[in-house]
Amino acid sequence: MTAPSNREELKKRREKYVVPGVKQLYSDPPQIVKGKGQFLYDETGREYLDMFAGIVTVSVGHCHPKITQRTIDQLQQLQHTSTVFMTQPMVDLAEKLAEISPGDLSKSFITNSGTEANEAAIRTARIASGRHEVIALEHSYHGESHLASTLTANHNWRPEIMPAAGVVFAANAYCYRCPFKKTPDNCSLECAKDVERVIQTQTSGKPAAMIAEPIQGVGGAITPPDDYFKEVKRILENYGVLFIADEVQTGFGRTGKHMFGISNWGVQPDIMTMAKGLGNGLPIGAMITRPEVADKAQKQQINTFGGNPVSSATAVAVIETILEEKLMDNACVVGEYLLAGLKDLQKSFPIMADVRGKGLMLGVELADEKKVPLTAETAKIVEMAKDNGVIIGKGGLWGSVIRIKPPLSITKENVDTCLKVLRKSLEVVSKVAVG
Ligand SMILES: Cc1ncc(COP(=O)(O)O)c(C=O)c1O
Predict the structure, then answer these.
(1) Residue range 172-214, pLDDT digits in tens
(2) What is the tens place of the pLDDT at every residue in 406-424?
């Protein structure tokens, strides 16, 4: 193991050798050298409670012993062949994904990332339907490639290049900032109905697919109302449009009650994409669909590292661990405890304008009494929390949402620590924000 570099030197080398778009969360970043369970450690040995899980990825805790061992065993046995050779781990993983996915989703294409999974999903939907156009939602994030960044409506993550053709956007279900100026008690799901308006006014009337995150992650834990996806699916079925649920953040028990986020809305997607929590940190992604959809795409396809034995064996171990350690139950219980704690904190700090999410995918939007986003204050809270030993994320179109998405294994005691540190940061920031 190489000895950690000097923090300042590392920062300078990073600036010199890594492209500038790869930004850091902190203005004064620690050098992270070790992870264990829900904790990270910097080069001085300082411990941090990780409430962001490497951007919603370390689902079962850092360096989980069983999973690490499975990775090492596979690494020592066989690392790579590519998909043109027959190996067992990829098949084991595909079978496992079929077992845990809703309905008849049972044929997978394994990738290295969420971006690639979304690329594969759109490609499959286009081939299967013989159509081209795709609907995505405002405030969405779907990845980094040309197509995935075109599907991304959040302008902070869209490069200034000619977008891919055939992508249109519907209003999203953002109740705190309802695009139709309604409130949950006087709305009739105008956001869901907007999908029909978009099909009729911005497409040929025959789009291939619609892609949506059940809870928008980068968008800031934006959580649609209970009947939203049912109404959307009804509209899509009327027009013969395939529904792709992007489960890159909401998958693998993150929302507590269900293995996949979309099941919270009682809706069956035609295609699902996943990544992040599936590998607990190892690069992996997947697209899964129904046999009738998959079987329409018979032309050969490959992803050199997709389905490689090491990532696949690791992912199987991750799924087994989520089930064996009953981490979804934990996400429900501890998630509700955290949500209640945040709502309690909200009573003392009016800048916590909206507290939302499900399970252990929660967000707190900071805004003033006129709903002006408190961007600088959010960044300050995130930085102060780190200085006080707790790692939380930030997101949303204006960078004004605190994102809390820890490993599913955290305890109520960890939540108490997080809330205490949040309170401390909010006390400082609220004084400045409120005057
Ligand atoms: C919902 C969603 N989809 C897709 C992606 C892209 O995944 P990756 O970064 O693995 O390519 C992300 C990444 O944050 C995401 O949050």
Answers:
(1) 999 999 999 999 888 999 999 999 999 999 999 999 999 999 9
(2) 999 999 999 999 999 999 9
Q: Is the CB of 214 under 6 A from ligand 1?
A: no
For range 336-347, the mean pLDDT: 98
- Residue found by looking up tokens 């959010």 in the block: 378
Q: What residue spans in the chain does CATH classification 3.40.640.10 cover?
A: 65-324
Q: Which CATH class is domain 65-324?
A: alpha beta
The pTM for the full model equals 0.97
Q: Any residues with CB less than 8 A from the CB of 427 and at least 6 apart, and which? A: none
Q: Kindly report, residue by residue over 250-272, the tens digit of the pLDDT.
A: 999 999 999 999 999 999 999 99
CA distance 317 to 320: 5
- Per-residue model confidence (pLDDT) at position 337: 98
322 Cα: distance to centroid of ligand 1 (angstroms)? 21
Q: How far apart are CA 276 and CA 31, in angstroms?
A: 22
Which numbered atom of ligand 1 lies nearest the CA of 217?
16
CA of 408 to the centre of ligand 1 (A): 19
**What interhelical angle do 65-77 and 309-324 show, nearest 10?**
160
Token readout for 195 is: 């999908």
Question: Which CATH architecture describes the domain 7-60+326-434?
Answer: Alpha-Beta Complex (3.90)
Task: Look at residues 259, 270, 256, 246 and name the one whose alpha carbon lies nearest to residue 113.
Answer: 246
Start and end residues for every CATH 3.90.1150.10 domain found in the chain: 7-60+326-434
Closest Cα partner for 403 from 390, 394, 416? 394
